[in-house]
């Protein structure tokens, strides 16, 4: 269903008329051509009203033709791909494109919220700071919800983004940002030297303003020169052209962030392709040739649909063969706007009038006016007539004092050009003011390795752009990887194409004159801000919201501060700019996240027996990045507690095994290994006999417990350390610090081998019997042959070797057996077979936790980063024979105070009562309050051996209070019950079971 | 930020972990029979563990290449600009001179 | 002119030409009873409470740039009082109570919005830690609820409940938590303090201190000349070490960069503040519609007020993991503030060893939410030389005594707090 495009010019334009593309805007079917943007297609279809503004819901049209667009924002696509605030001006048209206008209800043409305009005398800048204060309760309930509903722009999809994103790195000698005249010249110069060059262009095609402006370079038309330049670049293997790629940020060390819109120009990304790609480009040098942004003039009615930037009008005519109007008026203060007059005239568009604030015209301008027969008026625009659907005429205030009204259906305005100083200011450099072009240009403190060329540097003539681009590209290449000659710079036909400008920022008029279109900040808002003392540009921005819209102030910032300078009687450079911050263009959050979402947010570390555990139906729990089997349900067991109780009872009466491979493991080797460990542990390890293991405790230098674990001595110069699962990484890093930074004189080496070993705890009175079926029968596993805390390498039946440690976390006779990680799965299966006669079961982390609490062993909840060794009941471990990390600071007064909270056992007085972690301990009879809060329950379990819930807690003076009944106060869960403070070792306090 | 690890080459700072100022020197380990609880011991550690010059400008600092070779590095970096002027291995830069008696 | 809908309507009739300055622009006097260094939220609030509560009105606030140009203007605007350690709990609740009456106290709409804050948990261990914390809050008379997954789902159905790497199990909910308009807090305190005669002096950088022969501070040297002072209070978080160094002090503080981010404005989506428990991401939505979010420090000392990509990516990964619907929402702006990171993650409000110099520093992540409370307790300390009951643990010598207030249990490693 191809629709007639009333404003499409008959010829010209970089569009493919043989490929019509149907699309819809607010449900209406329209047609454009391949090569169009959504905005150019709307222009070609005669659509002028495209959106509503933020605050007053004023009707708005298309203002620009680039990524600085403040008005023409749409909700693009639908369903879970709906994308709010999408700029029509940078959206490539594709077949079936769906776009909706936004911030209006019920329709774009009739928007109820435009009633806000009636209140606009009150809704001035910052009005909300002065009202909505009474009564206080009304803010959240009434005022704020109303404000929130009215604010915002587009609606997010509210659904998970179905598309994929990825991240990539690129490295080069020279990164060129922008592919207009300067950028192409820079890339050619750099590329010819052999330097590895990346040319990044945010548009879908390279050429920049050369695609929209006429001109002659090296004797051919600008467009032909672009084609030639691209062909040469394509022939250079060291040059990479990246279109649809916007460089959005300058980070440290020559790192540039860039976003490639890989598949935004098609309805849906093809299978297995990403929507967008985040690039981290590391460049030795960078040439910023990002051009300039034309700025509006602030006058009454400057926001009406049909008022457009002069350069955009030219782009629509020349690049897209789309006519923004049939009878064009132009309001300008500089020569550049006259190129739009020429383009319109060439395209056969009527020129209603040119209003120029400058008296003097060039000969060429006068000739054009005569030939085309339009009046040139020396003056300013007083008002713009028309309505929501467009402009009907302009009212001109002539320099002579008279007013004149002229019919027109489109007004092109040009207040001059602002060089794109964003990227060059990302390291908080301040741009400097140039009076001759009435614009800020990059200052002296731009990021290291960067050079700015062309219009971005304030060079507005084509000739200067080509020259600066070439010089910058050659210099950047010479400073990085270029070896060969850069060749000659291209030359423009008209070398004296300098900009003549008479700065005019604001014209007094009848109605609202907008500075920031999207946020509805007017010239009088700026004046009000000044009156109220918000004179600093940052205060101005924050008080009026000027420049905080999705165009990031590209249209409004400089104009706003110029008006502030005017009203406060300061110069523009005195007034200064706000800080330019990344991203230079808004970037989808999905692209910054890449693949790291959903299950792939973080890697999952799998313990060696997890596959086998999954076969047995074990649920898994996240422990850091690890997945650990939580329990192993048997058929018929429907709740976790049944399974866990069974596992505990089976281990305590028979035998079970648990995958404990997640504990950190570190080989500590070398002649000084013992000395090293003596320093990092509070207890002695140099005296540990070969073939023995010892429990160790480490402190931080501030005297607080860092970690614990069992460390064994496998040989005179070889210790094998284990850490907690959570602290494996930090402890390794810390030990390396000690070794490399603090005590390099110690001859010791550290190797993390957490992932190299599969380790199973085999626990229970029958553990030895089971192991005899696994270990070579020649090995003596008896109490004498393999005593408690013994360690040695043993051959297994079948010939492979394992490390066997007789250590116990459960309090039962227990062993830990380690085999190379790849045999972990097989070992688990073999333990099941070998243990069948003894009724072996696997047990998970829950049963592990129950047994450690029954035994009063401390773990993560007690080693919480604020407890001392003594708090944990381990103070006596500290050696008095040697120095160790943390010794000195552990003795500070508050760390040895008698009223510290220390680890105790806690059990409910009512044995049927469930105990919960996080309940606080309040003395009986005390009033609940911060002063009577004496501690809390750290860990709990249901002990099948004791037949009740028990737990550990940190309680003030706890060790003196065994037997005292206190309250477990748990207001969060509405509970308060009596508990007894007791010895934390609930089960086998003498420890006879583990010694066998 | 790019840190030129002397062993691995230049890498993004995301591969590294930061510790902080490399200037504070850890008081030496002591032999416990000689001067335990010596006066000033806690003050010296207070200074080492807690007080910082918090330099605004050139600072030498510890970074750990945990995403690479596991080396501790001393990086000379400007905290105002993030510019890095040198990177070297941190062998033995962090502790006060070890007294002979401390070697147990 | 008192601010109200009536004065606004009257002003509208005259085209808003009658509004006067929100605060005066005075020349510095030669001497003040109290000089506050730092025209951020804390400094201005301190001046306000000195004048309002303690009757000390001969006060100047010196700001080297424009007021609110430091962390007051660069934060993510969250207010809450969900702290668990003695010292913090009561102080942040004091602050919360002052937030709740701020607009009426100041006659300025600071848009305090108590839409609630939820800290999500993803494991039993996290739930237990939140239970401990929530119970402390309740014991201190602070609102807190422990929500399960179903309750979270009802509140925020758009979170990832389907295929998350770390499934949401529930959350700790403080209904009175929320946000406030950060700049307005600065302007509101400036406005109210100015009405009491406090001189707010912008573009006035302190370059040194003046002392008498006993070493007592007698004033400050500034870019606008010497200014005498009976007492000098520092409220310059981000620059604390630099200013303290002028008085010969070294502090247990490091300056780090914390980045924050805001998206393009979208229609209302998020009811309150959400923090992810399995990644570095927290988010709220401003009244204008932008998602305001952040994560952890970049991790290295910095005064550059800007960060790098690894943390930006890390934060966005957290965001996508938690709410995969924001994939197509665009990041509009990122910025970095200088965080005064103390050695235990907790602020310092105390006299210093230098007579006449008072310190308010080390705010870590808690600075904005502390603004009114910090102002009140610092004002009391300056006015009476005795610490406020709710700030008595924020002592400078607590590290020497071993009385750290370490909510995260990370020890003397500022970038981990």
TrEMBL record, chain A:
Keywords: Oxidoreductase. InterPro entries: 2Fe-2S-bd_N (IPR042204), BFD-like_2Fe2S-bd_dom_sf (IPR041854), FAD/NAD-bd_sf (IPR036188), GcvT/YgfZ/DmdA (IPR028896), GcvT/YgfZ_C (IPR029043), GcvT_C (IPR013977), GCVT_N (IPR006222), Sarcosine_oxidase_asu (IPR006277). This is Sarcosine oxidase subunit alpha family protein. Gene3D superfamilies: 2Fe-2S iron-sulphur cluster binding domain, sarcosine oxidase, alpha subunit, N-terminal domain, BFD-like [2Fe-2S]-binding domain, FAD/NAD(P)-binding domain, Probable tRNA modification gtpase trme, domain 1. It comes from the Bacteria. The keyword Oxidoreductase applies. Residues 611-882 form the GCVT N-terminal domain. SUPFAM superfamilies: Aminomethyltransferase beta-barrel domain (SSF101790), FAD/NAD(P)-binding domain (SSF51905), Folate-binding domain (SSF103025). It comes from Borborobacter arsenicus.
From TrEMBL, chain B:
GO terms for molecular function: sarcosine oxidase activity. One of its GO terms (biological process) is tetrahydrofolate metabolic process. Transmembrane segments: none annotated. InterPro entries: SoxD, SoxD_sf. Pfam families: SoxD (PF04267). It comes from the Bacteria. This is Sarcosine oxidase subunit delta.
TrEMBL record, chain C:
The lineage of its organism: Bacteria, Pseudomonadati, Pseudomonadota, Alphaproteobacteria, Hyphomicrobiales. Belongs to the SoxB family. Residues 34-78 form the Rhodanese domain. It is found in: Cytoplasm. It catalyses: sarcosine + (6S)-5,6,7,8-tetrahydrofolate + O2 = (6R)-5,10-methylene-5,6,7,8-tetrahydrofolate + glycine + H2O2; sarcosine + O2 + H2O = formaldehyde + glycine + H2O2. Its cofactor is FMN; FAD. It holds the Pfam family DAO. Its EC number is 1.5.3.24. One of its GO terms (biological process) is tetrahydrofolate metabolic process. Transmembrane segments: none annotated. It is an enzyme of class 1 (oxidoreductase). GO terms for molecular function: nucleotide binding; sarcosine oxidase activity. This is Sarcosine oxidase subunit beta. It comes from the Bacteria. InterPro entries: FAD-dep_OxRdtase (IPR006076), FAD/NAD-bd_sf (IPR036188), Rhodanese-like_dom (IPR001763), SoxB (IPR006278). It comes from Borborobacter arsenicus. GO terms for cellular component: cytoplasm. Keywords: Cytoplasm, FAD, Flavoprotein, FMN, Nucleotide-binding, Oxidoreductase.
